[in-house]
Design goal:
Elements lengths: L1 E6 L5 H12 L5 E6 L8 H9 L21 E4 L17 E4 L12 H23 L3 H4 L3 H11 L5
Parallel strand pairs: 1-2, 1-3, 3-4
Helix pairs in contact: 1-3
Length: 159
């Protein structure tokens, strides 16, 4: 199964999601991330956070959804539409869900406040990915409506 974590800039939340998913996923599962308007640079705080958690970021880079190396089975948007962000809409015959998370790279404040925002985004995304990977996937893969309902439910964890 291939999962695409999609956002606008592909520098922070989608990167965190890709790295955490690949760190936790069983063999045969793979995540990629992309953006509709990639920044071309990964967020230094996101990279530092992942490193501190022992999660490899080797080989990751900010990339466009126009140049995906594979066709995803599931697309997860992680932009915060409730915060007024426009989420890109991936077209194609895939299962789509939305797991909105506030962008920690937009937080202004002390180093402690910024670090806390990154920790919060990480914790929410990790909890959702752990819930995804705990699903009875053998059963759900043949029941797309039930699979979508579970993915949408997971998108509310930590919200």
């Amino acid at each position: 199964m291939n999962v695409l974590f999609l956002c606008t800039g592909n520098s922070c939340r989608s990167l965190i999601s890709e790295a955490v998913f690949n760190h936790l996923a069983p063999a045969g599962w793979h995540a990629i991330s992309a953006g509709s308007q990639p920044t071309g640079k990964l967020n230094d705080k996101a990279l530092g956070l992942l490193c501190a958690k022992g999660i490899s970021t080797e080989g990751y880079y900010s990339k466009s959804w126009d140049a995906l190396p594979l066709t995803p089975d599931v697309v997860v948007t992680v932009c915060a539409s409730a915060a007024g962000e426009t989420c890109p809409a991936y077209l194609g015959p895939v299962l789509r869900t939305h797991w909105g998370v506030d962008d920690p790279s937009h937080v202004v404040g002390s180093d402690e406040e910024i670090d806390a925002a990154f920790e919060k985004a990480y914790a929410i995304l990790r909890a959702r990915i752990e819930a995804f990977l705990a699903l009875p996937l053998a059963q759900l893969k043949d029941d797309r409506p039930a699979f979508k309902a579970e993915l949408d439910r997971i998108g509310q964890i930590g919200a």
